[in-house]
Structures are given as structure tokens and as C-alpha cells.
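Listing S7. Sequence submitted for prediction.
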Amino acid sequence: MRYFFVLGANPALSAAEIAAVVGPDGIKASELSAQILVLEKDGLDNAALMKRLGGTVKIGRLIADGIDASPDAVADIMYEKLCAAPRSRRLTFGYSIYDLGGSTRQTAAALKNIGMEVKTRLKEAGLASRWVKGQGGPALSSVVVVKNRLVEEGAEFVILAAADRLLIGVTEAVQPFEDFSMHDYGRPSRDTVQGMLPPKLARMMINLADAPASGRIADPFCGSGTVVTEALRLGYTLVAGSDKNPEAADSTSKNVEWLRRNESSVKGSAEIIVADARNLSGRLPADGIDAVVTEPYLGPPRRGRETRGQLQKTLSELAKLYGEALSSWHRLMKRDAVIIMVLPIFVLGKEKHGLSGKEIAGRRYGLEPLLSPALASKLSEQVTKNGGLIYGRPDQLVWREIIRLRKIEL
């Protein structure tokens, strides 16, 4: 079976997360662009998969490949699929066009009347239908797909424009954007001064750690608890969060309590403690952590007026903090345990200033790339010197570099 994934705003991180969750085998022979990942895998539960992933916008199943861009050929496939769909009311359908190495603009121009063509055919067959049009651009947003119930009451057809052909699929799951928004803006405690890890990114980082559900996830810089709450939502049974700031630990506890009130499915235990990330011995069990997932302190909030020297001084101080913390965690982690953590990249004009993963890891951890060279090449993505991936916008003064470290037994 072949499936398509519409990747999120950071395609490289999205692809790395999918590879971690579904396993690398189905990814190796994949077709990939900055918008789409196509993979072959047996028995995927797309609804369950979407509930787990943080960086994927849509998931669906391919129903046709090798199609030319003629309106008749595409209309035939859409019409037949809609006629076979169960219905208790009028059919609702729409379509989106994505780039898989071809031109979405040319494909959209060739198929500009396809919606009306399908609607006319359905009417001639005695079937009432409604065509949901986009709000500009070749693709329907997740909001449009969900609000118009395309998955439940008809279909969203996804047309993938490859260089030499079209592939056609049907969307089966859409990212729960309202759910992520509620867990971002609806939680009772938020730190708008230091900034907060978005729930989607926290979830992606947890998935990149690929720890067993029965294992222990720890965040030694828990802040307001985004990693803790997302790990609980993903079904982890043992989650620990710590922060040296009592107010931060209290915020995490409040957010965990709020989560339990709002989601009865959350059953795992959460241990929240006040402790310095560099001194956790005796506070968490030795050899008891399967994965550390964390965004540590990234330095004082940027104002945009800092000099290169000031930024380098901050990075030097952070390198010392991170190195001492990693040294402390080593005794607490199981054999081959993984750390997924954020490192800051300071943007100064066209310059980017970051940290050496090898320097802070020392001999205790090995760096592992988040994305294979083959996938990175297909995405034209430049993996960092640390094997990490960048999460940031052009207007931000601090970017996040996501890296993976694995414990080395000394």
C-alpha cells in the first residue's frame, strides 16, 4: 500500500519524525519533495498515526499513479471514487494539488475545470454533490477540509504533480489543528517572556527520541511543561519534569492537572520536581531514563541590539551549562538512551552563531543525524554540522537547532 504525507512548515523535521515513527524501511524508497512524502508500507492506521504525529498536515492513500494531466483521465478517477463512496446525503468533494517534483501551476491550469466536470457527471448520474473550492492557491487548507467534512461526507482528492506523471490520492486524516491550538493557548500557565516550546514541536521531538511507551521520558528544563504534557498525551506511562525555578515547576504541575481534567485518556504518572538540571543525582533514578527531551535555557531574551561579542559570550556560558547538565544526566540514563534537545542559533544580520554538539557532549555521547543524507538531499536541506535540523523563521533572532545524542558507555 502506498501513502502520501503532506508535510508541515518544516519539511525536514516532518520527514525525520515520520521515519522515526513508521520505521526507516518504508522511507528508503520514498518519493519526496518539500511538500509531500510518499512511502510504501503495509497496514498503516492513518487516523491513529495522525494522532501521534506533530509535523504532518494530511495523510492519505494513493489510488492512482502514472496518470497524465488530461482533465478526462483525472475526472474519471474522481467520479468513480465518489460513486463508490457510501452516502446518506449529498456528496461533498474538493481537490488539492501538491508539488512532487512537477509544476503545480501547470497542473492547476490543465485541470482548472475539473471540479465542475466531476460535479456535472455526478448530476447526470442522479447524485447530488457540492464542490468545495479553495480560497486561493492550488491546495485546500486543513481548516477547509475539516470544516466541510470532506473526509466524512465525500472526499478530498490530492493530486501530486511529479515531473513525468500525476499521482492521485484520497485524504484519510487531517492534523487536529484545533486540538493543538487548545493545548498551546488554552492551558492555564504560559511563559510569554522566555518563550515556549510549541506543542507540535515538542511532540515531534518526543517522537524523534523513539522511546518505548513504557519507558521514562525526562525534561530537565521543563519550563511550563510542554514536553511533559505532550508525552502524557502520547501515552507515556512515566514522565519526569524538573526546573530550578519553583514557579516553572508549579506551572508544569498546573498544566498537568489541567490536562488530566480535560483528557480522561491520560493515565501516565508525572513527577515534577524543583532541581537544577546539573544536579539531578538522587532526584531521579540512576539508569532509569530512556530518553531526555528538552529545550534548555537558551539565554536572555534577544533585543536585536546585541554585538557579536555579546552573543559569543552568551554562547560560551550556555555551552558550559549544557556540558555540565549532560554530564549529570549520563549517570541517570539507560544504556543507549537518547537525548533530543534544542540548541540556540543566534541570528545577527546574515550571520548565524551556534554551538558545537561535540564540545558539549564530550566523550559521553555520540551525535546522530536526524535525517538520512538521501532524504536531506531530496529536500535540498542542509543538515547542520551537529547532524541537526533548524526550526525557525526569517524574522526570528533565535532559531532552534534540534539535535540527537546517544549515550556512550564509558
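Caption to Listing S7: primary sequence and predicted C-alpha cells for the chain studied. The chain has two domains: 2-175, 178-407. DSSP finds 15 helices and 17 strands in the chain.
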